[in-house]
Amino acid sequence: MDILPLPDGGLRFLEVPAAFYEQLSLLSQTCDPNDDPTIVARLYPHPLDPNEEPKDREKAEEDWSDFVRPELEAAFDTHMLTVMNDLAEANLEATDDDPDNSDDEVYYRLEIPSDHTHAWFQVLNRARIVLAMKHRLPLSEHPLGEDEEVSLQRLLAAHLSDSFAEISEILVHLMTDELS
Amino acid sequence: MSDGGTVTAPVEAPKTKTESTLDVPWKVIVYNDPVNLMSFVVFVIRKVFGYNEEHAQKLMLEVHEKGKSIVWTGSREKAELYVQQLQGFQLLAAMKRDS
Fold first, then answer.
1. A49 to chain B, minimum CA–CA distance in Å?
2. Closest chain A C-alpha to B66 CA, distance in angstroms
3. Is the CB of residue B60 less than 8 Å from the CB of residue A80?
4. CB within 8 Å of chain A, chain B residues 11-40
5. Can you point out the beta strands (E) in A18-90?
6. Any idea where the domains of chain A sit in the sequence?
7. CB contact, 8 Å: A46 with chain B?
8. Angle between helices A148-179 and A117-135 (to 10 degrees)
9. What gap in Å lies between CA B10 and CA B18, rounded to an integer?
10. A117 in contact with chain B, both atoms CB, cutoff 8 A
């Protein structure tokens, strides 16, 4: 997969393997905390420091849940919609220069316009947060001593998270350029 | 400064509980998070507070090395707004009364 900058500040992805494109298409599910209270608490943390008085924390939490959290959720939904629309517009790419090559690998070409970089970053970042919490990443902090299936799932999650992080680094670079 | 007239002792307005609560400054705190990219934390601090890169880097390193950093202090109303913005960027942020 190649990632090229676009003149307007966006990105073009060439030769996106079908398997990775599929993972991107599943971002909505990947980002879903599935009502896991620990993950939800990470995504929408308590607005007051834990050292504040419990009575104040309770009231603040109530207000936050009623007024702020719905706004944060709606903003994220908008980001997700932007990402899904970009993915829907991705094109199949013909990259096989060798007609004798029987390996019919499918690739996609994907573009992220400059005004969508923020949405993409937010979605990939949330995916990394949820993956990390669901699969106890990074792997280095949790020595593998579990059954093979769990280990494989964690390895795949770690690999996916790393791929998202690489793209995210490029997106942050682009967004930071906009600040200057 | 006197204007040449009589000098009267300043009258202190009675302090109410509400006033003193409102006057207490609040600190906005960003906590360490193993997932958020360091470059992103710098970006968010710059974007939300308008700090220059050097200052944002310093605060990010404090978050990274000490587990948290006070990134802003001021009124509760503004602190709430900043915490909302930081959480909108998926940073672990909260606010605390200044003691």
1. 5
2. 16
3. no
4. 29, 33-37, 39-40
5. none
6. 2-179
7. yes
8. 150
9. 22
10. no
| In the block, residue with structure tokens 């949820």 | A130
Contact between B40 and A121 using a beta-carbon 8 Å cutoff: yes
| Residue among A29, A60, A9 nearest A123 (CA) | A29
Residue A147 Cα distances to A91, A144, A152, angstroms: 39, 9, 9
Q: pTM to 2 decimals?
A: 0.85
pLDDT band at residue A57, thresholds of 50, 70 and 90?
confident
Contacts of A125 in chain B (CB under 8 A): 35-37, 40, 90
Cross-chain residue pair A132–B37, CB shorter than 8 Å = no
Q: CB A49 to CB B47 under 8 A?
A: no
Interval B33-53: pLDDT, tens: 989 999 999 999 999 999 999
Looking at beta carbons, which residues of chain A come within 8 Å of B85? none
Q: How confident is the model at residue A58 (pLDDT cuts 50, 70, 90)?
A: confident
Integer Cα distance of B56 and B63 in angstroms: 11
Query: Tokens 């106890």 correspond to what residue?
Result: A136
Percent of chain A past pLDDT 70, that is, above it, reads 87
CB A39 within 8 A of CB A23: no
CA B63, distance to chain mean position in Å, is 15
3-state secondary structure of B49: helix
| Res A158: pLDDT | 93
Determine the residue type at A62: E
CATH class of B24-97: alpha beta
